[in-house]
Amino acid sequence: MSTLITNVGELVTNAPPDVGPGGGDGAGAFTSISTAALVMEAGRVAWTGPASRAPAADQIVDARGRAILPGFVDSHAHLVFAGERGEEFAARMAGAPYQAGGIASTVAATRKATDPELRAGLRRLVAEMLRQGTTTFECKSGYGLTVPDEARSVSLASEVTAEVTFLGAHIVPPEFDGDTAGYVDLVCGPMLDACAPHSRWVDVFCERGAFGADEATAVLRAGQAKGLAPRVHANQLGPGPGVRVAVQVGAASADHCTHLTSSDVDALASSPIVATLLPGVEFSTRQPYPDARRLLEAGVTVALATDCNPGSCFTSSMSLCVALAVREMRMTTREAVWSATAGGGRALRRTDVGHLAPGARADLMLLDAPSHAYLAYRPGVPLVAAVWRDGELAWGSAE
Ligand SMILES: [Zn+2]
């Protein structure tokens, strides 16, 4: 059965990765059609163009001048955990610094939780993301940090997404205090063996207080040897080797990129790696934002993602990230929306999501607004009226 969505005020299509202007020009790759229509069939986009030339379809949806965008692609999220850290957030807002060690409290709660408890929390967050227009998301482990707890984390994540990331190297757990080498051996050995079958990606928190360059490289290389592709938490809390490590191992994405040297920027610009910016973290930790303009002007491909996690940023809202990117990081509305859709697709090496060219997955959202700019123009307002996934209405109503 085919569905025609017509009378679309603005249809954001984004150039598909293979025909877009060569890697890096996020703004240039944003494309849209006004007074448009889209046909979807068998879970895919079948046609886009001016509404006046739309072909017939079995079913018609009238967008009444509202905007259609590709579903958000949230390429960085930590969704398998128990407990919450509202008090830590309140303390931080009262002046306490953010430290990577805060993760340990979530690790303790996660280890104590039952599988059904973890699954219920995960599914609640996934539903919350869908209501806000996110149709593809990555999900990391990293709050178990034992072989069985990491294995169940990636197994639970694989129930809700294909983009599962093994993050055994999130922090050194308390029982390995003073023995980082011993923990890295566990991560690269039995833990990786148990997690690789459920994972597509391997990630490491390469940061002072977490894992250094050699340790991070060992973890990522071990993951690659098991068929996982690398991505890296890099240069979040201070300058460091994260971006260099990410480029050296051929990571899909270097995430955070808040504290970069000129050579880091050059390395990102001269590689196919995506710089994934997570402005919800800086918002929630009251830290300086990454310099998005410097990256874009150097030709780096930029993605936006939530980093949804119970510690440093407990938002699942890609719309908030777009608004922050525009208001606080001086990205244009077009750049920010491209980075939150097509950019996320690139960070996950996906060519079927983040754009609405014919052949793309029919993952899209209807905004209760005439253009994409309203995501930043009306921050905090729930503008997503309906979400289609694989061509099926998955949430909301087009009425
Ligand atoms: Zn993260």
Strand content: 15-25%
Which quaternary structure do these chains form? single chain
Task: Kindly provide the radius of gyration, computed on alpha-carbon positions and rounded to a whole number of angstroms.
Answer: 20 Å
Helix content: 25-40%
The total count of strands amounts to 16
* Order of H and E elements: EHEEEEEHHHEHEHEHEHEHEHHEHHEHEE
Major sheet size, sense and barrel closure: 8 strands, mixed
- Our count of helices gives 14
- Overall pLDDT score: 94
Protein structure class:
alpha/beta
- Unreliable stretches, pLDDT < 50, 5 or more residues? 19-28
How far apart, in Å, are the first and last alpha carbons? Answer: 20 Å
Description of the molecule:
Helix 6 (180-195) packs parallel to helix 7 (213-225) and helix 12 crosses helix 13. This protein is of the alpha/beta class. It has helices spanning 26-29, 86-93, 103-112, 115-131, 147-158, 180-195, 213-225, 242-249, 262-269, 279-285, 292-297, 318-329, 333-347, 374-377; strands at residues 2-12, 32-41, 44-50, 59-62, 67-70, 72-74, 134-140, 163-169, 201-206, 229-234, 253-256, 274-277, 301-304, 364-367, 384-389, 392-396. The structure holds zinc ion (ZN). Zinc ion (ZN) is lined by residues 76, 78, 233, 307, 309.
